[in-house]
Amino acid sequence: MNITDKLKWTLVAMSDSRAAKIFKVTASNERKIMERMRRYLLERRIVNSRTPGTDSSGSLVVAVRIGKGQLRTVAPVIEALMEQTSLARRLILFIPDSVDAGLIPASLRLLERRGLELLSYPADGEAVIPPGAIEVSPDSLPEPEYLDMLARQ
User: Fold this and answer.
1) From CA 106, how far away is CA 83, in angstroms rounded?
2) Hey, how many other C-beta atoms are within 10 angstroms of the C-beta on 28?
3) Among 39, 47, 53, 149, which is disulfide-ready with 114 (CB 3.0 to 4.6 Å)?
4) Residue 53 above 60 pLDDT?
5) Which pLDDT does position 35 carry in this prediction?
6) C-beta neighbour count of 27 within 10 angstroms
7) What's the angle, vertex CA 65, arms to CA 125 and CA 124, rounded to 5?
8) Phi and psi torsions of 130, nearest 5°
9) DSSP state for residue 116 in the 8-state scheme
10) With bands split at pLDDT 50, 70 and 90, how would you rate the model's confidence at 5?
């Protein structure tokens, strides 16, 4: 009996609830793998892209506020915002003023060339988000139609 036959036999002999659990775990793992792959592709695009990530004729202002610990992981989120079907007029990343300018990653400097605005806020206070701006989480990648959906509302 080859491995495929063994797998089929195992799945057939398994209870429905047990099989459902395995498929849930598989789907969950698949989402995690897709997320990691998307982050990887966005990181590659940061290095290779020279297209503007903002549009002066756009209507939205998007703000992302990070803590010191998120400095190295936020670049793919910013790139995802720069790849939207509708680009923002302004894309602002708020960084705590306790972060030394020399510690800002090259990936954020590359994004700055494409339209990202880097602003600081007091580490012991709050960032002053512009009125009407949409604040986006620095932890999750927005889907490509996210800003377009918000612009229509």
Assistant:
1) 19
2) 10
3) 53
4) yes
5) 87
6) 10
7) 15
8) -60, 145
9) E
10) low
